[in-house]
Amino acid sequence: MPKTNTSKAKADLKETKNLTTTSVGNGGELHQIAGKNHPELTTNQGVVIADDQNSLKTSVKGPTLLEDFILREKITHFDHERIPERIVHARGTGAHGYFELTHSLEKYTTAKVLTEVGQKTPLFTRISTVAGGSGSVDTPRDVRGFAVKLYTSEGNWDLVGNNIPVFFIQDAIKFPDLVHAVKMEPDRGFPQAATAHDTFWDFISLTPEAMNMVMWIMSDRTLPRSLRMIEGFGVHTFRLINKKGEATFVKFHWRPKAGLQSTIWDETVKIAGADPDFHRRDFFEAITAGDFPEWELAVQLFTQEEADQFPFDHLDATKLIPEELVPLTVIGRMVLDRWPDNFFAETEQVAFCPSHLVPGIDFSNDPLLQGRLFSYLDTQLSRLGSPNFHQLPVNAPKCPFANHQRDGHMQMARPTGRVAYEPNTLAKDAPREQPATGFHSMAEPVAGDKGRIRPESFADHYSQARQFFASQNETEQAHIVAALVFELSKVEHPHIRLAMVGHMRHIDEKLAQRLAHGLGIKELPAAPATMVTVQDLPVSPALRLIDKMKDTLAGRVVGVLIAEGSDAKTLEKVKAAVASAGAKCKIIAPRINGIHLSDGTEAKVDGQLAGSPSVIFDAIVLVLTDESAKKLEGDMAACDFVRDAFSHLKAIAYDAGGEVLLNAAGINKDDAVISTGKLKDFVAAAKTRLWTREKFVRPPL
Ligand code: HDE
Q1: Whose CA is nearest to atom 30 of ligand 1?
Q2: Cα 379 to ligand 1 centre (Å)
Q3: Residue 243: is its pLDDT beyond 50?
Q4: How far is the CA of 643 from the centre of ligand 1 (A)?
Q5: For 602-617, what is each residue's pLDDT tens digit?
Q6: How far apart are CA 637 and CA 664, in angstroms?
Q7: Domain locations in the chain as residue ranges
Q8: pLDDT for res 37
Q9: Which of 210, 305, 341, 510 is most buried per CB count within 10 Å?
Q10: CATH for the 76-391 domain, from 3.40.50.300, 3.10.150.10, 2.40.180.10, 3.40.640.10
Q11: pTM score, two decimals?
Q12: Catalytic residue at 89?
């Protein structure tokens, strides 16, 4: 080792020694460096730690001693930091908030959370993807889980739904098969978080009941722009029970105040690389900035008699009830206004169970729901390792709770007294059942033969899928076709592709033809036999996505590309115009520091160009000098910034220098490529995507 290095090593060692010898818990040098009087660092047994930098060794270069209980405690705890991730919905983002009732459902239910207008019920919401592991990206094509735990005054009510109102299967017994088919293939361990592979489509092609859901997942509903911009659905039919014990069926809908907003597939794929945490970061930034995500809670209410008239079974989770048939009534709002203090303690340990409900709400006989009532409690036991998971702060009810359950792993409660049973005469203050106010299941008469039976009324697998596709506009239909072509082109087995084209013939003959064309299949396969005739249900505009996008820029982000010498005044005007529309600008430049504007001031840059592609913005602005634009012409990151924004149908504003870059990137101006002289027009264009541009950048299949 050269002499200088040796002396440096010695100096380092000395420095470390100095620090550690003086860093004892009662205010040593380290604490002085930090400049604060920190609390003492201790072991889990409360012993103050003198040195948290070095393990205990026999001598300065000797082996580490087993005796080092401080090291062993720290490492052992670390080794056990992970708990089993959720088998599905492992990747999720959560936040605290409240539900405020604005319209009483007193006529239908006794549940206070749905009858006490103005009451704010605290809640925790977790939104997730389904297929990927907890470390997977935020933006695969996937259903989003939408789970809400309401800490009501009568106990916890978990409404564990999805952002799509229907599901793949009708009976819980098929769930493990569905999940095994969609997850990474077991022999190779890939693909992660993707449906575009053989086992998924093999299973689907043999499961006609999944076809309605297939239409939904191939639509842009599975490519949300933000978790703030998705709907949530309880999916199953539930029941409300009123004072008289009368039941009314209910479906729950969460509708985002920000409206729906999705990304374009090519954009989604690029976002995954640009920012794997795109949704979590967006949620975090919005909530911590005070721009709280908000949803309306709406219900569809109907009676058994009305349900008997529906052209499908309301207990079949592969079907929805069109809003045109049973309109939605808005009854309240959910606001998420607090980011968790600790991701693991709250978002990871939160344990949702559809079986958690409160008096006045009841299950229906949906066989999928019935299976879920078992599964979630079971999964929490394995994931959280103890029947006491309800004692974790994020899971504990906020109303009083007491019973005679005792002991078990990680028991945190310290019940007193000798009585842990009921009835009893020995403890006057022991908890007792409450026949009048306690939870009652609806007294539903049940008759029939026991058996593994599926109702005939569940047999129509195609009509609602057909209705969904027919209800989409031209762009939405084109995206569904493109998604199917993309997914099935990844499938290696031709017979699976053929089978899927066959199913599509029941949904829409033209769709089947376009799909066959996109897959290079010359002859259309026969459509599979059906048990019932496929119906032509009326078109339902409420099933569209683009129509549910809001004409607003609020809560969105505009990326502004600047470089050396960019015009300070134009930049100010852009910022003001975007801010007055309720959105924010992020300033992007070739360097994070040292970019000077025309007035000589140094610009505050939010992102470096290569690491901030336009896919992470809703619209872009180019504020450049001719000179800097010329330099950027040779930088593919700059050209892609512009080209991707154009290809993803976004609005682009440009000044004179920006125009140089536009030309270099080969952009033909259209209605959404607008001069910075017309910022009002730009803001209007940025509120939506220029759908008419799509045929020029992505010819429909
Ligand atoms: Fe789930 N599901 N699921 N699911 N599900 C789980 O529970 C299950 C279904 C949903 O953020 C698991 O805690 C079965 C429909 C969400 O923590 C597990 C069946 C809907 C979440 C489970 C279904 C959902 C889960 C895995 C068929 C929409 C995440 C970890 C009968 C209405 C909740 C866990 C969170 C999670 C089982 C079908 C939504 C294994 C057996 C339908 C949002 O218990």
Answers
A1: 86
A2: 9
A3: yes
A4: 40
A5: 999 999 999 999 999 9
A6: 13
A7: 76-391, 458-547, 553-697
A8: 80
A9: 210
A10: 2.40.180.10
A11: 0.94
A12: yes
The count of C-alpha atoms lying within 13 angstroms of the C-alpha of 451, restricted to the half-sphere facing its C-beta, is 6
CA of 374 to the centre of ligand 1 (A): 11
Q: Tell me which amino acid residue 491 is.
A: V
Can you tell me which atom of ligand 1 is nearest the CA of 375?
44
Identity of the amino acid at 312:
F
Query: From the candidates 31, 96, 162, 461, which is the catalytic residue?
Result: 162
Type of residue found at 100: E
On average, the pLDDT of the chain sits at 94
Residue range 146-167: average pLDDT?
98
**What digits encode the pLDDT tens for the residues 558-570?**
999 999 999 999 9
Q: Whose CA is nearest to atom 43 of ligand 1?
A: 145
CATH 1.20.1370.20 fits 458-547, yes or no: yes
Both structure tokens of 682: 């730009």
- Ligand 1 atom index nearest CA of 369: 31
Sequential DSSP letters for 301-334:
EE-HHHHHHSSS-TT-TT----TTTS--EEEEEE
Check if the beta carbon of residue 556 is closer than 8 Å to that of residue 550. Answer: no
Encoded tokens for 22: 């003086």
Q: What is the position in ligand 1's atom list of the atom closest to the CA of 350?
A: 17
Active-site option among 89, 197, 356, 648: 89
Residues 553-697, CATH architecture? 3-Layer(aba) Sandwich (3.40)
